[in-house]
Amino acid sequence: GYARVSSTEQSLNRQLDALIAFGIPERDIITDKESGETLERVGYQGLKTMLRSGDTLVVTSLDRLSRNKIHMLKELNYFKKHNIRLIVLDLPTTTVNLPEEQKWILDMVNNILIEVLASMAEQERKNIKKRQEEGIRAAKERGINFGRPNLSSYNKDLLDDIDFLLSQGVPKSTIASKLHISRSSLYRILEKTGRL
């Protein structure tokens, strides 16, 4: 089994539960917490080295493999070429077992469905990226800045507080904690303002 989410903050539990319910032992499930934009994911690449001809790979949905249509089709061709069966739990036709002489019917249906789903997954990735860009642009238009604040954004009161605490012999780690800034920010302020 293979499960993937796009970031470390996201949970794999729903996918793991579905794979285990399908009958895959937890020890046989490989996971990644990386974007589906690339195929160069540690778990996924490790999984591919373990799969052998005649094996079956189970995923909960096709976009767990990739959100890029070209990558997805490339991987599907790889599995077909290496005689690895792919079962996609939200694509019921992939779970059906038919006699060998009727497999062409399922192959045809699955190829059509996979083409449609691959296009939809890629479009969803583009939509997510577009929404992120629009959100960032809207936030910037409202004056919200991203990244580290510029030193010019540190006000005189903050610098006065730093000077006072330094003059009292308060350790720098305590100063950072009292002023609710990180130690690295404090050292950067001290360095840039000649207080270090």
Structure description:
It is a single chain. Helix 1 links the parallel strand 1 and strand 2. The strands form two sheets. This protein has a two-stranded parallel ribbon. It contains seven helices and four strands; from the N terminus they run E-H-E-H-E-H-E-H-H-H-H. The N and C termini lie far apart (54 Å). It has helices at residues 13-22, 42-50, 69-81, 103-141, 156-167, 172-178, 183-192, and strands spanning 2-5, 30-33, 56-59, 85-88. Helix 3 runs antiparallel to helix 4 and helix 6 packs across helix 7 (183-192). The chain has 196 residues and is mainly α.
Task: Summarize the helices and strands and which ones pair or pack.
Blueprint: E1 2-5, H1 13-22, E2 30-33, H2 42-50, E3 56-59, H3 69-81, E4 85-88, H4 103-141, H5 156-167, H6 172-178, H7 183-192
Parallel strand pairs: 1-2, 3-4
Helix pairs in contact: 3-4, 6-7
